[in-house]
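User: Predict the complex.
Assistant: Input components as received:
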Amino acid sequence: MTLLSVKNLRVTFDTEAGLVEAVRGVSFSLGRERLGIVGESGSGKTMTGRSVLRLIRPPGKITADQMEFDGIDLMRASEKQMRALRGPRIAMVMQDPKYSLNPVMKVGAQLMEGLRQRDRVSKAEARSKAIAALEAVQIRDPERVLEAYPHELSGGMGQRVMIAMMLIPNPDLLIADEPTSALDVTVQAEVLSILDNLVKTRGMGLIFISHDLRLVARFCDRVLVMYKGRVVEELAAKDLLHAKHPYTQGLLNCLPRIGGSRDPLPSLDRNAAWAN
Amino acid sequence: MALIEIDNLSVTFTAQGRQVRAVQNVSLNVNAQESFGLVGESGSGKSTILRAICGLAPISGGSIRINGKAIATPRGKAFSRQVQMVFQDPYASLHPRHTIDRTLSEPLAIHGLPGTDQRITKALTDVGLPTNFRFRYPHQLSGGQRQRVAIARALMLEPEILLLDEPTSALDASVQAETLNLLSRLRAERGLTFLMVSHDLAVIDHMCDRILVMQHGRAVEELSRDALAHAEMKTDYARSLFAASADRMLEG
C-alpha cells in the first residue's frame, strides 16, 4: 500500500541572486518501508524531507504535480490540516539535538507538552506515557532524564529523547534527517537498531536522510541517490554494490575501509551533466 | 627516541566540588614522521589528551616530553612553532569576524616572521584553495573549505607535529575523502608527525600506523595497522568498536 506518493516535486528559492532550485523534479513513492535518501550537502535531500511536511519558509516555494499522504492532498491541504498532520501522522527527527530541543525546558516538560496540549491527558498519564516513550528508546533511567535539561544529556541521549518525542503520538511516517550524524559509531548502531525495531513493530514508514551511503544501505530497503536537486539513481539497498551511476559509485568508494589501501581515496567526480 | 613521549598522563577536572578523571594513567609514544591514532567513543578522553599537550586541559599527573624535553608551562612560542592543532568543528574554530587573511597572518605577526604576503598565498595554494579566498570571511566558505583554512592556519608556522582532533567528523563523506587526502599529501611532503583523534575506526585505519583504543579515560589496547585489518584485537571493547564500524557490516 502506498503511504506517500510524490511526483515532480520542486523547491525553488527566489533570492537576490536569482531563482535557486534546491529540488528539481523529484518523484518517489513510499509504503510501510524504509526509504533512504542520500547525497552530499546541498543535494536537496533535507529540502525533500521538509517539503513533505510543507516546512519550507518563504521565499522558498514548493510545487509538485502530486504529493499525497494516505489519501490527503498535501499540496491543497490548509495550514490547519497540515498542523493536524505534523506530529500525530508524520513526524520528523532533526539532525542535532543541541539545536532542536528547547534548552531552557526540562526534557520531561518537553515530552509531556504535546500530550497535555494536543491529547488533553492528565498530568499523571502524560508522565507515564513519557516514561514509556523513553523506555522504548532504551533509556535506562527515564525518571532522571525527565528531570534533566538538554545540556545535561550526551549527544546520543539527546538524540534518543528526540526520537522518543516524535514517537509518542504514534505517527504513520517518520522522517529522520541525519539522525545519527552527530553520534559516535557505537551509539549510532544503537540508535539505528532502536529505529529499526520501531519501524518493524509499529509498521511505520521511514524516510532516512543521510550523507553516509554505506550506513543507509545497511539500514534501508530502498535508496534514492540525489545530486544537485535531482534523483540520479534509485535502487534496492541490496543492489547498492552493483550501482550503475558513477555518482553513486563515487559516494560508495570515497569512504575509507578498515584494511583498505593507503592510496589517496578516490575523490568524487562531479559531472554537471548528471544534474540535467 | 620517540618524538612525543607521554608517560602515565592523568587529567582531572574539578566541577562543582566533584572530580572528573577524564584521562587516567595513559602512556603512549609517537615516533618522528609517524601517524598515531587515538580512537574511542565520546567521553573516552581522547581529545583531552590532545588538549593536555596544548595546555588546554589541566595535567594532574604524569609527564609529556617532546623531543626528549619536558614541555614548558605555560606553552611558549617555541612550542607553537613545533606543535599545532586542528580542531573538530571548522564552524567554531575560525573567528567569524576575521577574514581568512587575518586568521592566517596572525601567527606570522606574533612570531615576527617576514614575507606574510607570499606565505599566505602559498598556504592557500598548498591546501588547494584559490588565492582569491584570502579576503573572504568564514561564513562565505563551505565546511570543507573552512577545514582547509584551519589546516592552512595550523601549518603557517611550519610545525613538525600536527594534533588532529576529529578533523573530518563534521564533514560529508565525499568532502572527508578530500580532506584526508590533503592531510596525507601534506604529511608526505613535509614529513609531519600526526597524532590524530577520531571515533571512526575506518578513518583512523586509513590514516594511522599505530592505534590506541581508549575507553572511560583509560588506554584499552594498542594495535598496529595490520592487527586491526586482520581483526586481531585482544580486548572485548576494541572488538565491539570494530564490529560497530559501518563498512564491516555491509560486506559481512
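DSSP finds eleven helices and ten strands in chain B.
Let me know if you want any component modeled separately.
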